[in-house]
Amino acid sequence: MSRSAAAVQRVIKAYDVRGLVGEEIDDAFVREVGASFARLMRDGENSTQVVLGYDMRASSPVLAAAFAEGVMDQGLDVVRIGLASTDQLYFASGLLNCPGAMFTASHNPAAYNGIKLCRAGAKPVGKDTGLTTISDEVIAGVPGYDGTRGTLSDRDVLVDYGQFLRSLVDVGSLRPLNVAVDAGNGMAGHTTPAVLGPIPSMTVFPLYFELDGTFPNHEANPLEPANLVDLQEFVVQTGADIGLAFDGDADRCFVVDEKGQAVSPSAVTALVAARELSREIGATVIHNLITSRAVPELVTERGGTPVRSRVGHSYIKALMAETGAIFGGEHSAHYYFRDFWGADSGMLAALHVLAALGEQDRPLSDLMADYQRYESSGEINFTVTDAPAVVESVLKSFGPRVHGIDHLDGVTVDLGDGSWFNLRMSNTEPLLRLNVEALTAEGVSGLVDEIGGYIRAGTRELT
Question: Which of 106, 135, 266, 345 is catalytic?
Answer without folding.
Answer: 106
